[in-house]
């Protein structure tokens, strides 16, 4: 009875509580209706599952050329690098088919990667560029070459030092595969070399100062060597193009023409039309139709470039050059970096003077060379030639650092560098119209060095033989009159050449020295050299060449000149060996002759002074 009472009591208290009223929300209209306004998204399949056209060229990942070039612009560097590798796979197998139709798009896409922030992508893109440029001719590449030059200029002047360093490799690829086009566009590239190693002192002046590369892993000297060596590469391309454009002096060939005379013949031509040649006009570049105008502007730009470059190279050399030796002259020891930098600088100087010679020979003027000598001869004499010659310290392997400090290391001669210095000095001293004093002491030191090198020439020195030949030609064929005028006798050098031809054991040296002597004999203006006793001894020995098993065509022409100009020196020996020479002329091997019968008749005609007989 107690439990029931309590239950009623609880119900009563529950009813006494305040009740909160709740409203039931009704669903809005249309909520139970199905909405059909949904969007559809395509299902993307994996590239490996796509079906490709059987004739379409694809990579191992089944990506065609268009897809790969699109991926070259992807934000992910790994995707870009895989695209580069895919292009390399296709180009290695089907380069001709692709390049014939997609050369422009490939060049634009690959060249853009030279500015990529990832080093691996930049290096791989250069490998692809080699594959593209190697089979393409200059004529096919010329319409698109501005693309390469634009990206090259951007890379060379980029704010990122790593991209700037790799731009030199980009330049190497262009110089190796399309050097002629690079030389033609050199005015767009040459100023960038100055920006890579120097900066303007003030915005209003053109004076520059060398920069120090603190953010690079390379030292400043090594960086300048890399930049200047590439500058030497592009200058080599420029000189090669100019050398091929140089007109040939021997346009009149010795070959005879047979003219058939009949009753209908009205006239016989007396002159050959050697200068009537087929000429091709290039309508894409109007300035080339007037080469003198275009060459003038290019030459003025190059002259301004040289004006800034020469002081920068001298300043770079002074940073690594040893202290000046104010006592007796001796071989000055330089470091390996100094030797490399000196070699690069002298190569550039030789290329510059060769370019000046070619241009002046075409225009028959000497204003540029006189300007060069007046501005830079004293600078070169003071900073480079004053301590000539130089030698390189040769490190000894397997020695501790402490041992090296207390021993004398063997030195190696910087042969190519020293001969290049001789060549530049001889060229600078071959002008008389410049108010720069002639140094007789330095000239005698140059001659002594050259004579010693000719006498002790070894097989290991053959790499420097072209430098020696070029230097001696400049000395004997160009500067000899100026040196004789300043009381410098070249008889000892001439005797050294003759000794090398007659008794030296090295065939390469004998051949080159004989070619120089041949030019001396053929040049009737070299009266000072022709009056040397050594020259007469050489002339007297020349008829013995006609008794050998073989003879060069140039040697026969030289003997013709000798008989005409110096008959008194060789008449006795020619009379003595007349029959032997005539018999040997029937079987001697003539090298370099276009008409052997005519060359053999030329040998017989050497004896015209004896019997008055001329053979045709």
Q: Could you give the order of strands across the largest sheet?
A: 3-4-5
Beta strands, count: 7
Number of helices: 27
Strand content range: under 5%
What's the Cα radius of gyration? 39 Å
Give a brief rundown of this model.
The protein has helices at residues 2-16, 65-71, 77-112, 119-133, 138-141, 145-156, 161-177, 179-184, 186-197, 220-245, 291-320, 336-363, 367-385, 401-405, 415-428, 440-455, 465-478, 480-485, 491-503, 507-522, 527-530, 533-541, 553-565, 567-576, 578-585, 596-604, 608-611; strands at residues 198-200, 208-210, 332-334, 390-393, 411-413, 550-552, 589-591. With 616 residues, the chain is mostly helical. Among the domains are: 56-152, no CATH class; 532-616, no CATH class.
Sum up the structure in keywords.
616 residues, mainly alpha, three-stranded mixed beta sheet, elongated
